[in-house]
């Protein structure tokens, strides 16, 4: 009986057993073509069990012979028992090292062979949780690890009650990001929408407290279909419908042609959500631009991790001067109906970009003419402002608000009316009920008229307007002198 590392050519690892009078005196062999690597330890084992012989290398079975009918005990007493030397003098001696030599009176199992091949270290899968193994490295032996709250994964056994850090607050918000300190967990990627493949013509950044996607530009090459977006994951502990809202601006440089269009897009798990039947939030095929707040409620999403992606798409650019800029801000994602949603907000830091001005044209944005009564939580300068309006001056929301699908809604804003208003001059708040405009407030000159040189916070219950898809709001004023000021600031509409 012998085991040799190099029988014949090519090099073959071989075990052989021959007993006179058994199997016709023929030699039973197990052979495996193998060249031992130099300078490293290799574990070799032979297991005989019944008539089956198995050859292992480094704990792995590499060759078998099912017809070994002789047993080592059939050889009787043996005398030439050597390690590293052959029975035949012409064979060379072993040029190497041996260690952990073992002969057993029983057949070892594959797991036991693997144990020995690992130099005594633990072997995962042997049904024994050994030193050096744990639930993370070998759950097969040590069992599954209990969930760890704070590892950013909502594991089985965790939910919003036991681990809001991983599974989100019960009811949310699952995402509440204003980007004042960075990306708030959102990560940018080129080609985020509509199967585009133009990474050289898309980029993303966090700029001035908002996510920004730039599409197009770069050079004079004609390019079609560019996109980019920011993504963030959120986890639901149970099947849940979610509502999300965010503010956006879409602007296009002046050189675009009428057939070159840009879109603001949002998706959850690859499904696009848009206004009405459209799959886009906003779309422009001109250079006018657009801004607004977008709100949408999803169907029930399954429990688990989901991804929301926000950004945009451009159909074509033909010059370096054709570039689209999309900005995203104030992203809120909650369980549907759980908390009030911000449908609109304007602190006028972006001028009158969310309003359409009509009339004499004396609305602008500028610093506050008085701080009297201004609330500490107000946004401060600038605010919407008008003076020296001899007839009427009006600002109207450029995008009507959809109040359908909500059970409650409210409007709030700050206002200031100068005491120098003349008789017949005013600041008026009007709303559109789907058919006609009606007056909510009318502050004017005179005792008790509201012209008191003091800021006031106003709140309006919008319950009469629930269900409208085109609710709108406007501020109208008349003040004939440059010393007769009216202000409006921090206009917000919320619903749930």
Could you report the average pLDDT, rounded to the nearest whole number? 88
End-to-end span in angstroms?
85 Å
Number of strands: 29
Biggest sheet descriptor: 6 strands, antiparallel
Strand content: 35-45%
- Determine the fraction of residues in helical runs and give it as a percent range: under 10%
Shape annotation: elongated
Unreliable stretches covering 5 or more consecutive residues: none
The chain-level structural class is mainly beta
Radius of gyration: 39 Å
What's the number of helices?
Answer: 3
How is the quaternary structure best described? single chain
Structural commentary:
This protein has helices at residues 110-117, 139-142, 164-167; strands at 2-4, 12-17, 28-33, 44-49, 52-57, 60-65, 175-177, 187-190, 202-207, 210-216, 223-236, 242-252, 262-268, 271-272, 282-284, 290-297, 304-317, 323-335, 341-346, 355-359, 363-366, 383-386, 389-397, 409-417, 426-432, 437-444, 455-461, 472-479, 486-495. The chain is mostly beta strands and 496 residues long. The radius of gyration is 39 Å and the shape is elongated.
